[in-house]
Amino acid sequence: MVWLLTGALLAALLGLALVAVRLQAARRHSYRLERQLVRDTEAERALAAADERARIAREMHDVVAHTLSVVVAQADGGRFAARTNPAKAAHTLETIADVSRAALTEMRALLGLLRIGDEDAALGPQPSIDDIPALVAATRDGGLDCSFVTTGAPRTLPIGAGLALYRIAQEGLTNVLKHGGPAAKAFVQLTWEADAVTLIVSDDGRGAGARDDGDGQGLAGMRERATVFGGTLSAGPRAGGGFVVKARLPLTSREASAILAP
Fold first, then answer.
1. What phi and psi values does residue 151 have, to the nearest 5 degrees?
2. What percent of the chain is modeled with pLDDT above 70?
3. Is 141 exposed, middle or buried (0-12, 13-18, 19+ CB in 10 A)?
4. Closest listed residue to residue 192, CA positions, set 132, 126, 125
């Protein structure tokens, strides 16, 4: 009888020991899973932060490149105008000041995104497709002969898609300022189709010169913007001379049906 009780007690103790071992193993496995989840979450956050910083870098490049191109063109013209036409020189300085102030405001907004832990960094309204006419007008005031035409029935685009088209137009005009030559004329055309919107920026300048800044932020950046929204972008020599950039973004069924009332 004693042997039976002793055997039963040993069996119970062995069972409890096995349960304890399994519980410990389960705890270790759970801990490893939790640590892996933390690492995966941190990796996802790091990738998201890298993507956001890359986007901000593109935004800052567009602002700086376009603004400096306008400022340089205006400064060159104002330097010569100062000798014969002081009034025009004064207007040139006003344009430089206005463009620079606008760029400074936008740069401050973008830099606000880089403040670590600052969730209250406020941004003003981002440019959209509706601001392209004003962009063309500002570029024209900056000294580049530039025209704008739109055809078709406008739609309401998502903020990101509208911003992408604005930046493509801005980069295209900046390239004309850089590479088109002093007598170049720029043409911006926005076409609303049944299932897509097409933006064309062309010029009759010095032809198919290098249209990238060498840092991957020129044509590659424009192409990336279009691709993000399921669109395409082509760039190359223009028939008759000059250069042409064409971006085409598809419209969703919802956007295609949302024709704005005149």
1. -135, 155
2. 66
3. middle
4. 132
Q: pTM for the full model?
A: 0.57
Binned at pLDDT 50, 70 and 90, residue 128 comes out as: confident
- The overall longest dimension of the chain from CA atoms, in Å, is 124
Alpha helices in the chain (DSSP H): 2-84, 86-112, 132-141, 159-179, 219-228, 253-257
Ramachandran region, residue 133 (left: φ > 0; alpha: ψ -120 to 50; beta: rest): alpha
With 0-12 / 13-18 / 19 or more C-beta atoms within 10 angstroms meaning exposed / middle / buried, residue 171 is buried
Burial string for 228-239 (b: 16+ CB within 10 Å, else e) reads ebebebebeebe
DSSP 14: H
**Alpha-carbon span 108 to 171, nearest angstrom:** 20
Distance between CA atoms of residues 188 and 202, nearest Å? 7
Residue 85 Cα distances to 81, 89, 153, 240, angstroms? 5, 6, 44, 35
Higher pLDDT, 231 or 56: 231
| CB 56, CB 114: distance < 8 Å | yes
Segment among 99-108, 203-212, 236-245 with least mean pLDDT: 203-212
pLDDT at 197 over 90: yes
Structure-token pair, residue 23: 């519980």
| Distant-in-sequence, close-in-space partners of 209: CB < 8 Å, separation ≥ 6 | 179, 243
What's the distance, CA 43 to chain centroid? 23
In whole angstroms, what is the distance from residue 236 CA to residue 212 CA? 12
Distance (Å) of CA 131 to CA 1, 138, 184: 96, 11, 23
